[in-house]
């Protein structure tokens, strides 16, 4: 995906620029942008080190695992067909919590594991219905998979750490001003996702 | 409405100090070596940044070239009549579309918005909020469903697009109120 996107951006820019006589500008833009990326990473490095450092304390002192327990009723609400002790539940929870706290690199592996476990759940359902649900046909997403993916994409996040770093690099008077508005926006999109999933999940499954 | 924004801005100022206070106090009460934990985490954070540096160089160059060629201006002018209809700023169209495919390419475009229009302008604020409340739909769906070997994704895309649409609308709306 990114190979085509990146390639297309460069080719489009250079060809369009050539026709409009802007090749000198393109040359300096290419060199300046590369330099700028490094300067940006220096700013990012400080903010990320601070945030991940704090999150390490949060993890070691049990805040993260407490949050994991606290959202169990929500998981039960969103995934009524998922049995209490199922492995998928654990991974789904980890994925959501990691996303909320901006631990992106921890979110993806847990998310992929969750999908694997949800696939196994469908295989179990083939033998006998689990959680009052029958198996989805082979190669078809189960209701749980749809709900999980939509929730994931609605991207609930407490603090948009990297955006704050970028804003401070580009001279914002108050880089953190967007924290609460972002939270409000992400809550709205998550709410839309939750309602949509509940409606679709409530309809006769498959 | 004005007071809502004031409360939001107040919350923005409060959240980081409060979070640091809470996490550190909690760590001390749990008798953790908080400073050692912090340093260990900070090291991981630096590693993450180092890992994204090459992608950032690649994508910022691509966006820089696209901007310098005049193509981005051409695109937003061409789209202007269309976006006018739904009161959406045409300057944010490239960012909104790319955001659904690639997080890092979208970052490049968001930084371009910051440079061109300023971080605290209406467009800068809208771009900031938009980056925080949307996801890379197509990328996420493809790797997650590939893992589960699923071809028929049923209502996932519709739900994902709905969530994104709400997020984008909320971003421009909130940014408009902040200005």
- Tell me the fraction of residues in β-strands of chain A, as a range: under 5%
Mean pLDDT of chain B: 91
Total number of helical segments of chain A?
Answer: 9
Helix-strand makeup class of chain B: mainly alpha
- Most strands sheet of chain B: none
3D shape of chain A: globular
Radius of gyration of chain A: 22 Å
Total beta strand runs of chain A:
0
**Cα Rg of chain B:** 20 Å
**Which two chains touch over the largest interface?**
A-B, 96 and 107 residues
Oligomer: heterodimer
Counting DSSP E segments of at least 2 residues, the number of strands of chain B comes to: 0
Secondary structure: helix percent of chain A: over 70%
Question: Helix count of chain B, per DSSP?
Answer: 8
Bulk shape of chain B: globular
- Distance, first to last CA of chain B: 12 Å
Query: Mean of the pLDDT scores of chain A?
Result: 90
Overview of this structure, please?
- The complex is a heterodimer of chains A (206) and B (179).
- Chain A has nine helices and no strands.
- By secondary structure, chain A is mostly helical.
- Chain A has a domain of 141 residues.
- The relative contact order of chain A is 0.09.
- By secondary structure, chain B is mainly alpha-helical.
- Chain B is 82% helix and 0% strand.
- Chain B contains eight helices and no strands.
- In chain B, helix 4 packs antiparallel against helix 5.
- Chain B is globular and about 60 Å long.
- Chains A and B meet through helix 1, helix 2, helix 6, helix 7 and helix 8 of A and helix 1, helix 2, helix 5, helix 6 and helix 7 of B.
């Amino acid at each position: 995906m990114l190979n085509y996107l990146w390639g297309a951006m460069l080719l489009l820019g250079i060809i369009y620029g050539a026709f409009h006589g802007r090749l000198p500008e393109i040359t300096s833009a290419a060199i300046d942008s590369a330099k700028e990326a490094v300067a940006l990473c220096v700013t990012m490095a400080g903010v990320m080190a601070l945030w991940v450092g704090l999150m390490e304390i949060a993890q070691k002192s049990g805040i993260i695992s407490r949050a994991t327990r606290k959202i169990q009723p929500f998981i039960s609400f969103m995934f009524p067909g998922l049995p209490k002790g199922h492995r998928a539940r654990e991974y789904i929870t980890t994925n959501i919590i990691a996303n909320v706290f901006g631990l992106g690199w921890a979110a993806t592996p847990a998310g992929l594991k969750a999908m694997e476990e949800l696939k196994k759940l469908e295989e179990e359902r083939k033998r006998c219905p689990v959680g009052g649900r029958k198996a989805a046909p082979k190669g078809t997403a189960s209701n749980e998979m749809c709900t999980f993916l939509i929730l994931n994409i609605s991207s609930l996040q407490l603090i948009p750490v990297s955006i704050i770093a970028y804003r401070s690099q580009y001279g914002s008077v108050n880089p953190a001003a967007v924290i609460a508005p972002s939270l409000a926006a992400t809550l709205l999109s998550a709410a839309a996702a939750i309602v949509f999933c509940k409606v679709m999940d409530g309809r006769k499954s498959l | 409405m004005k007071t809502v924004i004031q409360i939001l801005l107040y919350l923005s100022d409060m959240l980081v100090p409060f979070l640091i206070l809470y996490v550190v106090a909690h760590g001390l009460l749990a008798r953790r070596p908080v400073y050692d934990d912090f340093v260990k985490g900070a090291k991981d954070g630096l590693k993450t940044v180092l890992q994204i540096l090459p992608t950032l160089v690649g994508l910022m160059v691509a966006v820089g070239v696209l901007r310098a060629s005049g193509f981005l201006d051409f695109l937003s002018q061409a789209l202007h009549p269309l976006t006018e209809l739904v009161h959406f700023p045409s300057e944010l169209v490239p960012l909104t579309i790319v955001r659904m495919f690639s997080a890092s390419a979208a970052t490049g475009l968001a930084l371009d918005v910051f440079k061109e229009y300023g971080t605290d302008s209406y467009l800068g604020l809208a771009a900031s909020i938009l980056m925080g409340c949307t996801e890379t739909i197509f990328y996420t769906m493809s790797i997650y469903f590939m893992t589960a070997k699923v071809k028929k994704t049923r209502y996932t895309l519709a739900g994902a697009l709905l969530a994104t649409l709400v997020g984008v609308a909320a971003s421009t709306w909130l940014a408009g109120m902040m200005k």
